[in-house]
């Protein structure tokens, strides 16, 4: 289940770019799921743990990945922390739902991310309500962001 | 802010060319669409000038205000 706390959350890690730069591990980059995410979101191919081939920027280090990808990789690999996922664009929403398949993940959002037209299960921690689509989500989350 | 301002920012691989004409313009979009790259290039040009290998053309000075020092900045009308 994807659990979302909307609004200011002091215990969440706000600057995921800085956290990633100082905490990432090589294995996180070559992980099959990370490769999929990097290819889908950044349109880039992981060559090895230190080099990613970007169609725009050429050969880049993991620290040059997009903020959204770094946040997704952190959420996947550091389950003990709550990350600010407002660093992710809407193209990361489906990955947040996938990461929460079969396990509980908690994120902090400070904006209304669009989770798309398909049904989903999201627990809005501010009220404890579980929502199943954007029509249910927006009126509740909108009270906090 | 008064008037319309065209901003061109480019390096060897990426070129941005756009106009702004409001006091506040919000640039938003999906992840990996170049938002951070634009800000980084403007910052690098402001701090290093032509030595940054970033070309920036605008009739007004462009800089980046970010992080905890944001609250200490007083903006003058241009």
Strand segment tally of chain A: 8
Helix content of chain B: 10-25%
Q: Which stretches of chain A are low in confidence, meaning pLDDT under 50 for 5 or more residues running?
A: none
Mean pLDDT of chain B: 89
Please identify the structural class of chain B as seen in this structure.
Answer: alpha+beta
The number of helical runs of chain A is 6
Cross-sheet strand order for the largest sheet of chain A: 5-6-1-7-8
Number of strands of chain B: 3
Strand content of chain B: 15-25%
> What is the CA-based Rg of chain A, rounded?
15 Å
Question: Secondary structure elements and their pairing?
Answer:
The complex is a heterodimer of chains A (145) and B (78).
Chain A: E1 2-6, H1 16-23, H2 26-30, H3 32-42, E2 45-48, E3 51-54, E4 58-60, H4 67-77, E5 83-84, H5 93-99, E6 105-109, E7 122-124, E8 129-131, H6 134-141
Parallel strand pairs in A: 1-6, 1-7, 5-6
Antiparallel strand pairs in A: 2-3, 3-4, 7-8
Chain B: E1 5-10, E2 15-20, H1 35-48, E3 55-57
Antiparallel strand pairs in B: 1-2, 1-3
